[in-house]
C-alpha cells in the first residue's frame, strides 16, 4: 500500500472525525436551545398571566412585566436565528460527508488503468462525477444562503 494512499486514508478519517465531533457539538447546542425555548415559554406564560390578572397593579409594575415579556420574545427570536443557522451547518456537514465519500469512490475508479476499465466502470465513474457536481452545487447554494443571511443581518 503506497504511502500516499495511506496518507489520503488517514486524512479522510481525520476529516470524518472532525465532522463527527462538530455534528455532536451542534446536536448538543440544539438540545440546549430546545430546553431554553421551554424555559422561556414558561416564563412568558407566567408574565402574560400576571399582565392579564393584575389589572389593578401599579403602572410601573405592568411596564416592568411588559418589558420582561418583550425581552423574552427577543431572546426567543435570537435562539430561533441561531437554531436556523445550526440547521444550515448540519446540512452542510451532511453534504461535506457525502462529497468525501464520492471523492473516495471516484478516486478508486480514476486510479484504475484505462485499459482495465470496463464500460460499466466508465459509466459508474461518470455517474459518481455527476453526483459529485450535484453535491458541490448544493453546498454552494447553502454557502450563498448563509452569506445572504449574514448580509441581511448587517
Automatic annotation (TrEMBL):
User: Which SMART domains does the record cross-reference, listed alphabetically?
Assistant: DUF3585 (SM01203)
UniProt name for this protein = MICA1 monooxygenase
- As recorded in UniProt, coiled-coil segments are 23-50
Tell me the superkingdom of the source: Eukaryota
Subcellular location(s) per record:
Membrane
InterPro entries hit by this protein: bMERB_dom, F-actin_Monoox_Mical
Q: Which Pfam families does the record associate with it?
A: bMERB_dom
Where is this protein chiefly located? Answer: membrane
> Which residues belong to any copy of the BMERB domain?
13-154
Is Methyltransferase found in the keyword set?
no
Q: Which UniProt keywords apply?
A: Coiled coil, Membrane, Monooxygenase, Oxidoreductase
The GO molecular function terms of this record are: monooxygenase activity
Keyword Coiled coil carried by entry: yes
Q: Which PANTHER family match?
A: [F-ACTIN]-MONOOXYGENASE MICAL1, CALPONIN HOMOLOGY DOMAIN-CONTAINING PROTEIN DDB_G0272472-RELATED
Amino acid at each position: 500500500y503506497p504511502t500516499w494512499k495511506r496518507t489520503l486514508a488517514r486524512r479522510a478519517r481525520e476529516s470524518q472525525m472532525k465532522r463527527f465531533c462538530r455534528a455532536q457539538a451542534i446536536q448538543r447546542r440544539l438540545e440546549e436551545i430546545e430546553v431554553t425555548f421551554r424555559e422561556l415559554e414558561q416564563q412568558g406564560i407566567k408574565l402574560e398571566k400576571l399582565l392579564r390578572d393584575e389589572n389593578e397593579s401599579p403602572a410601573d409594575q405592568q411596564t416592568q412585566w411588559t418589558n420582561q415579556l418583550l425581552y423574552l420574545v427577543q431572546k426567543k427570536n435570537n435562539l430561533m436565528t441561531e437554531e436556523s443557522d445550526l440547521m444550515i451547518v448540519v446540512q452542510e456537514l451532511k453534504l461535506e460527508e457525502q462529497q468525501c465519500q464520492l471523492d473516495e469512490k471516484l478516486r478508486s475508479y480514476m486510479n484504475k488503468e484505462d485499459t482495465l476499465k470496463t464500460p460499466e466502470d466508465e459509466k459508474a465513474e461518470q455517474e459518481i462525477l455527476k453526483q459529485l457536481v450535484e453535491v458541490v452545487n448544493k453546498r454552494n447554494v447553502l454557502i450563498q444562503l448563509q452569506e445572504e443571511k449574514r448580509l441581511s443581518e448587517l
